[in-house]
Amino acid sequence: MKATRNRSRFALALVASLLLLFAGSLRSFGQESRASLAGKVTDPQNAVVVGATVTVISVETGVVQTATTNQAGEWRVQFLNPGHYSFVVNSAGFKKAQHGAIELQVGDLKTADVQLQIGAVAETVNVGTEGALIDTDAAVSGAVITTKELEELPSLSQVPTLLAGLTPGVVVGNGVSGGVYLWSNNGASQIQDNGSGSVAGIGAQNSNSATQYRLDGAYDSSSGGTIGFIPPQDAIAEFRVTSNAYDASIGRQSGATIDMVSKTGTKDFHGSLYEYNQNNLLNAKIQGTLTPQHLNQYGGTIGGPVWIPHVYDGRKRKTFFFFQYAGIHLHNPVNSGYMTVPSLLERQGDFSQTCFVTSGIVYGTGGGCIGNGKSAPQPFTVYDPSTINTTTGNRTAFPLNKIANISPFATAIMALIPPPDVAPTLTVSSDSNNFLKKEVQRDLYGGYSIRLDQAWNNSNHSYANISRNNWTEASLNPFGGFANDVLNSFNQARKQEIFTLDHNIVLNPRMVLDLKYSVLNAYGNAFSPAAKYDDSTLGLSSTYISQMPEQGIPLFTGVVNGAENGGLGNSNGGSYTIDTFQTIDVDLTHSYRTHTFKYGFEHLIQQNAGGNLGTSGGNFSFGSAANTSSD
């Protein structure tokens, strides 16, 4: 099955045109994951200064960008990465004004006005920031989770979206079937904002699709609405949670937009390493056994200028990189308890020592079952299904309840089931709860991200981001590795990758063009180890095997009690999902006199495919009701 969706969206906005009639300012413009810094330059009599040169300098990288004030004395520099920026204003006949560092967060639209003083350009006047600047010009608002919070708040999961719960009105769920890790796309997407989200209830507004995820300005949401690629917490500079964002440049969701921005390299080298290790030495015992629980999370980051000795100096050429890697090894005991498996005698066809208890009455003279003591044990009979009398419909009993002609196929299946290892619960049967589950969920994860930023000149800036991860899991394996868990276990794997390329161009002092391409790929598959098993080694007939869509051990139900994933054998012959999401964005910001116009074009291509072979080996179901000779 395959589905493809193409959608183009053309947004021609006069950026709150009614407001512009009254405000008439360059300071109002569409939302973006990067930040913008603007201001107004006046003289001591509050008259506007036209043609003043404004030089904006990044504190972290040293990258310089310039702008010129227009007829209204206003200037603006767009597409700035979150960080700290200072700026200098120069104009003939006035002293140079130097403004202190201003912090810009993701999606910020901040302004800082400067009043020049008459004097020589060689003289400098320092302009300080009296308190933090407040973004008063954006059409929408949102809370920002900062670098400080991402780095200093404790988090075992390393999943940044969980910190969205620090935002007023946002509720974060508890995960799905256990803790939230970097592969937990559903658990990391349990976010409710102002009543809309996956933990809010039922309905379209209360699904995963109520929240939209973006990474470096690109879509990071799967077709099901969950987050696509989960960036580790130490790879994110900060993210903004925008609630009920009806700005056309933001999205179409009913809840929140979580806009994440990855860290960038700076003019100095910086890095980090971490490891969190939990092992079985200090763990509590389960069922009297010290479980081999082991969680190892490790990773690191490094960033700075691209530097090749005697060949390339990224400080001078304004080329910066940031690399991050994260790995997780998890061995986690789950679903503890007991199973009921056939006894060793029963596997040989000997049911003379088998017994069971029904309504306090013991059936079977061997095995030592314990009833209510009010009646003597009652016999039961095992019949030969191959001895049906065509006239009476009755069958012949096996002498002493011992089967003489056991099927080679049954023998082969029994060899894949581990023997009992604990005493049975005799008040139920001679087999009840005679095997202690040894189920361990094993997860292996590895992922990396690399980002490159390039300032070509004052008018051209680019960045690229490549992120990829791989995850595999083996679970639902109560036999604890017996016979390679072929009869009762479940494997799944997932790979996600995202690529973003962006380039912005200052066409002229009045027009800025931003071009962006991104692609998000997500691949998933799951299967039972019993799938694609060579059934000829089990003694199955070639006729039966030829009717299977794909070879695999058939699914058995009723053979054991407490089996995982629907029974023993092949419950999933193989399933797969493929989700590809491509976007092409073109944004043009045009300032004309005291007005700002923003034009946007977005083309989305979403492709989905999936399939499932199901129980491709067939299904054998065994009941537990007692039979008579005529059944």
Give the arrangement of secondary structure elements.
Layout (H helix, E strand, L loop, with lengths): L1 E12 L3 H7 L11 E8 L10 E6 L5 E5 L5 E7 L2 E8 L5 E9 L4 E3 L2 E2 L8 E4 L14 E4 L1 H6 L17 E3 L18 E3 L2 E2 L14 E4 L2 E2 L16 E8 L12 E7 L7 E9 L6 E2 L2 E2 L3 E12 L1 E2 L3 E2 H4 L1 E15 L4 E2 L4 H4 L8 E3 L2 E3 L19 E2 L11 E2 L10 H7 L20 E2 L3 E18 L2 E16 L14 E19 L2 E17 L14 H5 L8 E3 L17 E18 L2 E18 L6 E3 L10
Can you describe what's shown?
With 631 residues, the protein is mainly β. Helices cover 5% and strands 42% of the residues. It has six helices and 39 strands. A ten-stranded antiparallel beta sheet has the order 1-38-37-35-34-33-32-25-22-19. Strands 4-3-6-7-10 form a five-stranded mixed beta sheet, with no helix packed on it. Strand 15 and strand 16 (218-219) form a beta hairpin. The longest helix has 7 residues, at 17-23.
Percent strand equals: 35-45%
Cα shape: elongated
Major β-sheet annotation: 10 strands, antiparallel
What percent of residues adopt helix (DSSP H or I)?
under 10%
- Structural class call reads mainly beta
Distance between the termini: 44 Å
Tally the helices: what do you get? 6
Q: Specify Rg, calculated over alpha carbons.
A: 34 Å
From the structure provided, what is the oligomeric state, counting identical versus distinct chains?
single chain
Unreliable segments (pLDDT under 50, ≥5 consecutive)? 9-30, 200-204
Give, in spatial order, the strands making up the sheet with the most strands: 1-38-37-35-34-33-32-25-22-19
Number of DSSP E strands? 39
Mean pLDDT: 85
